[in-house]
Amino acid sequence: MVPFAVDVLMWSLHTAFAGAWTGSILFFFAAVLPAASSGVIDGPTLSAIATKLRWLTRAGAVVFVATGGHMAGTRYTFDSLLGTGRGHLVLTMIVLWFVLTALVEIGGSRIDDAGSSGPAAAAAARPAFIAAGIVAVGLLIDAGILASGRVI
Per-residue pLDDT for 47 more than 90? Predict the structure, then answer.
């Protein structure tokens, strides 16, 4: 039996990091890209911010595998992941996490590839970050349903 304190630590790290990560992605999409599109943020600054977001995403991979792996390993069996509504929500969360990670990496690469123009870099990355914003909201909704204890 895993001590209660370890469970609390894992759940807390997981939710805190997930909130910070998805919030950062939504902020980048809603505030940073529009500022770069209008020329308020130049290309090198946009690239530096996107690089930090990509590193946050990569750090999230480590945190989410450790904390999510612990939570799944102590709360679910293979059958309950595949055969229950809560299990399906967990699997959906994993898929959304992979998709969101890929979209942030793609968007960041497009910014780097676009060069030093803030508006051009923002335009190149915009489709990836629109999709990332949608997926981030979906991930938060999924987490909210899981946290509510109600399964649809």
Answer: yes
